[in-house]
Amino acid sequence: MDQQKFTKETKSIFPWMIMILMSSVTFVGILSELMPSGVLPQIMADLHISEVQGGNLVGYYAIASAIFAIPLVSMTVRFNRKMLLLILLSGFAVSNVIAGLLHNYTIIVFLRIIGGICAGVMWPMIAAYGMRLVNPEHHGKAIAVVMAGNTLGISIGMPIMTAIGNDYGWRTEFVALGAIIIVIALICVFALPSVPGEKLTKGSSPLALLKIPAVLIVLLLTLLGVCAHYGVYVFITSLVDEIQLVGGTEGALILFGAGSLISVLLAIKYTDKYLRLLTTAMFALLIVSMVIFLMFGKTIGMGHFAFFLWGLSFGPLVTLLQAAVSKQVESAKDVATSVQSSAFNLSIMIAASVAGLLLGAYSPMGLTYFAIALAIPGMVISFSAKKTLD
């Protein structure tokens, strides 16, 4: 599809089908990263590995994403966007299918690292790709729709894939995801418009971006928001057990997912107009939900309500932060979002490490204090950052 013609046609019409297709890419992208965690006992028993080795199947993936995002996005910014996305989807498909067929742990780890490298490039580039297909006033909406796949993958995709793994084996789950990715790639061949790459200049390099105060503010918000959310989310089962939630972890995740879905829909509609308000509200809702856990978590119904509110806060996290950083640059948005994406992944690693130490020293309720302590400055900074977020 011709880029100039496509841009003309979308001046007044938002390309929903194109954006939903891109959303399916982020959907399988997050599944590719998190899928082992749902069937970890099966993988450990089958490959005869320890719990630490099993956890590394997710950990090495995340580390590869964080380390390689900035350099590889900078290297590939000149590539045609459609061609690059097809290469990345091929990498996702191959790494999952072959991992599902092999019995050698070391090679599977290597394949997971390949998947992580593909993810490190895919997350920032697909957001920028989507923005280039719409007018500036729809940039936030484009990011919200594309990144909705991430939230839906966590809230809906993971339970489905885990059920497939439990019923038919983890290898079937991996191969099935690889097959789904191949189908999505084939649709992309015919449906996505071809968009040329951009020239990387000194002014749009990662180091240059880190000299922009507004970018640093967004990265600080990323650190605060991601650590606050994931510090609790990584150990969500411990929190559920602590408050003795009726319905257990499954019930908690359903309510969390419902809240996330609602907030994603709100983000799609309002991110372009109310980015600062939504970012402030995200931190505020996180504080309220954690306070409810602390004060009324064991009260019938209140714990469930807290998980729903937490989901409302969590849903637009990726969307709002990527929309915020993309507002700070005119060109090479892929590079800007790659910097933010690396900060996002590094923040998850920090959150998991710190939360693990807190959990060992205190009860799971200590994690809610950790989240509140980070969310309060996040809310204040968001509300005050008029030049950055408005």
UniProtKB/TrEMBL annotation:
Major facilitator superfamily (MFS) profile domain mapped to chain residues: 17-389
Membrane topology: Multi-pass membrane protein
UniProt KW Ion transport keyword: no
Keyword Transmembrane: yes
Chief location of this protein within or outside the cell: membrane
Subcellular location(s) of the protein: Cell membrane
Residue spans crossing the bilayer: 12-31, 58-77, 84-103, 109-130, 142-162, 174-195, 207-231, 251-268, 275-296, 302-321, 342-361, 367-385
A Pfam family reported for this protein in Swiss-Prot or TrEMBL: MFS_1
GO MF annotations in UniProt: transmembrane transporter activity
GO cellular component terms attached to this protein's record: plasma membrane
Keywords: Cell membrane, Membrane, Transmembrane, Transmembrane helix
UniProt xrefs under PANTHER family: CHLORAMPHENICOL EFFLUX PUMP RV0191, PURINE EFFLUX PUMP PBUE
Protein name: MFS transporter
